[in-house]
Design brief:
Distance between the termini: 166 Å
Helix content: 10-25%
Oligomer: single chain
Radius of gyration: 41 Å
CATH architecture of one domain: Sandwich
Order of helices and strands: HEEEEEEEEEEH
CATH class of one domain: Mainly Beta
Number of helices: 2
Shape: rod-shaped
Number of strands: 10
């Protein structure tokens, strides 16, 4: 292989590398995906009510410190599971519908966190990473990025579909009430004494009358 051929090969390799590097740099946005298993990094959309829901992803380039702490206005965030929307508008309030509420994330290079423990409820939901770096917690955000990197800070969304039977609560057995025995009522003294005195008086009266005759 002559020097001319080697030179062309090196130039072609540099061009390819620059394309890959440019693509990676342009794709420095925050990401979120979903999985029913911890640590598998599945990109899962379909779930059953008996599954667990894990959310995993990356905070994006705008959340990195690049070795220059402190973080810009916080670098963590929250995971929300909300009712699905076809279109999200900047500033829309996030209302978590999972059984344990939204999950708070501390800063790290990436995250993998339980977002909704089984049982899930049938329906269509959006799993959202609400990034602290935007400065607008609790709402869906799509704003211009004041930091180096991608032009916008956008809270990433992952849509999931939950099917299966909705779990039913087992009725709680109520304790059976035992009948209360009523105490035996004892008649009052006057109720018994007065008729007895009258009968005794009549007996004495007729006895006396019989002797007189």
């Amino acid at each position: 292989m002559n020097k001319k051929t080697i030179g062309k090969f090196v130039i072609a390799s540099l061009i390819i590398m620059s394309i890959f590097v440019g693509t990676a740099a342009a794709n420095g946005v925050a990401e979120i995906q979903a999985s029913s298993s911890y640590g598998t990094f599945d990109q899962q959309h379909n779930f059953n009510t008996t599954d667990n829901l894990y959310a995993w992803g990356d905070f994006g380039d705008y959340s990195y410190t690049f070795g220059n702490p402190p973080c810009p206005d916080g670098c963590g965030g929250r995971i929300y599971v909300v009712e699905h929307r076809d279109i999200w508008i900047n500033g829309t309030e996030l209302e978590d519908v999972s059984s344990d509420g939204f999950e708070t994330l501390t800063w790290d290079n990436d995250y993998y966190h339980m977002a909704w423990p089984t049982p899930l409820t049938p329906g269509t939901y959006d799993v959202i990473l609400d990034s602290d770096v935007s400065g607008y917690p609790g709402v869906w955000t799509n704003i211009s990025n004041p930091y180096p990197g991608v032009p916008y800070i956008t809270d990433p969304i992952w849509t999931i579909y939950v099917t299966g039977e909705e779990p039913t609560e087992q009725p709680t057995e109520q304790p059976t009430e035992q009948p209360t025995e009523k105490p035996t009522e004892i008649p009052e003294f006057s109720t018994i004494a007065i008729p007895g005195i009258l009968i005794l008086g009549l007996v004495l009266f007729f006895s006396y009358r019989g002797r007189k005759e």
